[in-house]
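Q: What structure does this chain adopt?
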Amino acid sequence: MRPSPLSPSGHIAAPARSVAVRPASLPELARLALGGLLAATLTLAGTAALASEADGTGRAQIIEFSAEASQPAANDLAVAVLYAEHHGPNPGAVAREVNRHIAAALQTASAHADVTSKSGNVSTWPVYAKDGQGRIESWRMRSEIHLESRNLGAMSELVGTLQGSLALSQLSMQPAPDTRMAAVDEATVAALRAFERRAALIANSFGKRYRIASLSIGDSGHYPPVMPRMRAAAMLADAAPAPMEGGESLVSINVNGKIELLD
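A:
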């Protein structure tokens, strides 16, 4: 018996074994090919479905639009601003003169039960000499009173009286808070109904139903222009009642929203 060959390390090497590889038959190759093709087909189909969704297939149809309604509101509140202004070299004396006029005006206004009066802005500033030296030449002070009333006759009479010592800065007519709120409520209902009618019109044009996706409401008011500032020199000729006419303001409500069309 011939001894077994030794490995380089001195151990007896195991005899090599041969492994027989059976070639795949044609039916097996066909099954493998068909399985790979099916997997590739399913992958491509899934990718196509995702691409279709990304392109907007099945996406909700959203339409955005707005509607508006307006409601007149009576200008039943008169607002007036009058002021006293004085200047002089002594700031203390200037302040005393201005405060004297304002105190007298507030006392006169308090006698009118239908008129609400209150103090307004007060400002004092230096008047510099024109010699370019930064020297204060005198002081100027201005102080305001504010008047409000729904009684136009009482307001007109009081403003005319106060113009004997004060200058009229502003005179305007506007809706009182409760009057304006009532007009806002009516305009809001009208604007919502207009939005609903338009939503139904749009949906019916597409032959579909709808639901409201979002809604926002805003309001605005158009008031008559404010009477420009008038100096006392132009108003002292005759302390007659100031002419006043209420008229109306227009309160508008805007409804903006989106609807979703349903099948």
